[in-house]
Specification:
The complex is a heterodimer of chains A (343) and B (300). By secondary structure, chain A is α+β, with helices and mostly antiparallel strands. Chain A is built from 10 helices and 18 strands. In chain A, helix 5 links the parallel strand 7 and strand 8. The chains are: A alpha+beta (343), B mainly alpha (300). Chains A and B meet through strand 6 and helix 2 of A and helix 10 and helix 11 of B.
Chain lengths: 343, 300
Amino acid sequence: MTARAIAVRLRGLSRHFGDVKALDSIDLEVNDGEFFSMLGPSGSGKTTCLRLIAGFEQPTTGTIELHGQQVADVPPYERDVNTVFQDYALFPHMTVADNVAYGLMVRRVAKSEREKRVREMLDMVRLPGFGGRKPSQLSGGQRQRVALARALINHPKVLLLDEPLGALDLKLRQEMQVELKAIQREIGITFIFVTHDQEEAMTMSDRIAVFNHGKIEQVGTPYEMYENPHTRFVAEFIGTTNVVEGEMARTIHGKSAAYAIRPERIVLCPPDADVPLDSVYLTGVIRDVTYLGMMTRCTVEVNGSVFTVIEPSAQARPAFGYAIGAACVLVWKREHMRPLEGA
Amino acid sequence: MRRAVNFLYAHPNAALLLLLLLPMAWLVIFYLGSLSAMVVQSFYSLDDFSGRVIPEFSVFSYQELFSPANFDVVLRTLSMAAAVTLASAVIAFPLAYFMARYASARIKGLLFLGVMLPLWSSYLVRVYAWKLILANEGMISWGAEQLGLTGVLNWILSLPVIGGPSLSFSYFGMFIVFVYIWLPYMVLPINAALERVPKSLTEASADLGGRPRYTFRKVVLPLAFPGIVAGSIFTFSLTLGDYIIPSIIGDSARFIGSAVLLYQGTAGNLPLAAAFTVVPIVIMGAYLLLARRLGAFDAL
């Protein structure tokens, strides 16, 4: 496989609003044809980053390249990117067909061609025959699809999506996740997807960048982000984690650095269990047990620190009685601990 | 008392009727009543000898309305109302746009105050104040002199129709005062319409390739249009009916309002006064139909 082209390259990109550094000198490369997610809590800079790529904001410093071309000074209407807005931003005074055709009308595409492509787009987002309706007559999920069709009709080099599923209910959101991913695979356009929902990012993305306080904490595949988080923030933002640090870390590892250990890597054993010699083990007391169906989550207190342990219900139930207040032993393999930076 | 409340709770339609009784009575008796009385009056005629109104159907008042002298009054008023409306819209739009889009909460509050402030003082006082401002020795001619623009002022005054011996005796001066007086009624509805256009809509247009002018034409203007129409209904109908400004500013040429005042008061020709009053109603009706045809109310 040849090296993939870079669709978007950000270098030293900053956006300050007065004293607030919404985006603080980030570097990032997004590959062509990739489903890339920008993940972070609100105010972390992910949306600002997206708006800079779209051209709605001007960078304070730094450069933006789209397929090798500098675009920091190019207005949004001359950039080959399109956006799906969080509130969909459908034109309320136009029909669905006119909304979808907007980009083509701007480019003065002939009417017959326009109608043909609108039909194709509406078919693709599974809204055939909806062209004559007004946006106000559509449900949230339908509006979302129209917004997607409108943004894709221009065949942009990069599609930007700003929390497009945020307003949908859970079931619809999960359906749309699958659908979006399928559409992206089919048309092969680079998607940059902004979300604060780590599960959504994990489900859909080829790669994820985690934003925090205007900086990027880590970039990687969902697997890398979960299995090998570099910072405490990433470890705690993606999934749940237990952080071992201070005295406890010194006892286990001989260093007082911080380590992450995922809850499902820990095995909950009765106090008299045989523990393999190369494993870490800690004695604790069960404080809480929550049965979640597929799995069971236990909270265990060890020397004043709290650990979360997740075990598959099918396996765990018969092996150990989960009485609150019962003594237990937490066992995990040393290689499953991940050292965290700067903690 | 409790039983009455319980009854109303159980019968929401009765409660609604009770609620609407007063405003409906007001609308029907006073508003529609006076309107129909007026329309009926306009089809009566005046006995030239006795000066009494003859309560029999006649289109004499309307024949008189279309006589050259009276029809001039109608045309003059219409042109003024149209010019005032157009100018108000052109001046109000950028201000309303700035207030809706760019102004911080503080600046926006100050601008609202600025727009509304003139409405706090008496209309009559403000018109007289303008008479002084526009007079030959007034602020404007003094300012023009200081800036060396007396030539420009004189050129405007020398123009046919809109000029005159001084701004306070010209149609142009009257136009300025009309625009000043009615501008708030244009700013507020346009602002209200623009407030409801989220920023993401203009961004979406730009994102899809629309240059600023295209975005304005295809997105901002259509969505602001109901506000412009609402504002123009105010400025247009208020100018059509006003009689104070034409009697204080300008060369005393008659407008519809002053004609009505003259005929129903001094001349006692109530039928003709009523016929004059029907003119703005018909014009506004036609205007609203046209606005609807143009889709002004589609976005509501």
